[in-house]
Specification:
By secondary structure, this protein is an all-alpha fold. The chain folds into two domains: 2-89; 124-223, no CATH class. Helix content is 69%, strand content 0%. It contains nine helices and no strands. Helix 3 packs across helix 8, helix 6 packs across helix 8 (190-213) and helix 7 crosses helix 8. 25% of the residues are buried.
Length: 225
C-alpha cells in the first residue's frame, strides 16, 4: 500500500515536491530489495551492489506503470530474486576463475608437486584481466572524449573506477561533506548522500553500457546486469 500511495502522489504532483516523493519511493524500493536479497543469502556487499544496480531502474519502471497497482512489492521481489541468482552465479564464476592448479591435494602419493612460484595462472583468468583492462581504457576514453554525460555522473564514475577505485561508502562520505544540506536547507543524512551516489552511478553505468556495447565490449562482468 505504501508504494501504491507514493506512486499516486507522484503522478499527481510536479516540481520539487515530486522529486521529494521520488526519493522516498527510491528509499522504500531499496529497503525492500535489501530485505529480499538478504533472504536469498547474499553477502552484505553483494546486497548493496545489486540494490544499487536495480533501484533506479525500478523507480522508473514503477512510475511508468510496469507493475499493476498493488503488485509493486511482488514486482520488486521478483527483480531481487533474479538479481540474487545473477550475483550467486558471478561469485561462483569468479571463484572458479581464481582457483590455481595445485591448490587441491593430490590423491596420488607419487605425483610431483608444483612449486608455489611456478603455478600457472589459468587462461580464463588472464582473459578476465584483459577484459578488465580493456574496460578501464574504454571508460577513460569515453570520459575524456564524450561530453554528453552530466558532470555529476562523470565525476562519480571516474572515482568509482579510478586507480585506486573509491567505494560507495567513500563516495557517499565525500558527497555529504561537499553538500551537507538539502535544497530546502535541512541537514542532509548519510543515507540521503548514499542514495544520491547510488542514483548517479546507476544512471552513469546505464549510459556507459550503451556506449561500450557499441564498441563490442562485454562489460557485464564489470558493471553487472
Amino acid at each position: 500500500m505504501v508504494l501504491t500511495q507514493l506512486l499516486e502522489q507522484i503522478h499527481a504532483t510536479q516540481g520539487s515536491q515530486r522529486t521529494s516523493l521520488e526519493n522516498k519511493l527510491a528509499e522504500e524500493i531499496r529497503r525492500l530489495l535489501i530485505d529480499q536479497l538478504r533472504r536469498e543469502g547474499l553477502q552484505p556487499a553483494d546486497c548493496d551492489d545489486v540494490a544499487q544496480q536495480k533501484c533506479a531502474k525500478l523507480v522508473g519502471k514503477l512510475i511508468e506503470g510496469k507493475a499493476a497497482p498493488g503488485s509493486e512489492v511482488a514486482y520488486i521481489t521478483k527483480t531481487a530474486k533474479r538479481g540474487a541468482c545473477d550475483a550467486h552465479r558471478r561469485r561462483q564464476r569468479r571463484s572458479r576463475e581464481t582457483e590455481l592448479p595445485g591448490d587441491a591435494p593430490s590423491s596420488d602419493e607419487n605425483s610431483n608437486t608444483v612449486p608455489e612460484g611456478l603455478r600457472v595462472i589459468p587462461p580464463q583468468l588472464d582473459d578476465r584481466r584483459e577484459r578488465a583492462k580493456q574496460f578501464a581504457e574504454a571508460v577513460q576514453r569515453l570520459l575524456d572524449e564524450d561530453s554528453t554525460m552530466p558532470a555529476r555522473y562523470r565525476a562519480v564514475l571516474s572515482k568509482a573506477h579510478g586507480h585506486p577505485p573509491m567505494s560507495i561508502e567513500e563516495l557517499a562520505r565525500e558527497e555529504l561533506r561537499a553538500n551537507p544540506r538539502t535544497r530546502d536547507g535541512r541537514t542532509r543524512t548519510a543515507k540521503q548522500a548514499r542514495d544520491t551516489i547510488d542514483q548517479h552511478l546507476s544512471r552513469a553505468r546505464a549510459w556507459l553500457k550503451e556506449q561500450l556495447a557499441a564498441q563490442n565490449l562485454d562489460v557485464g562482468e564489470v558493471l553487472g546486469p
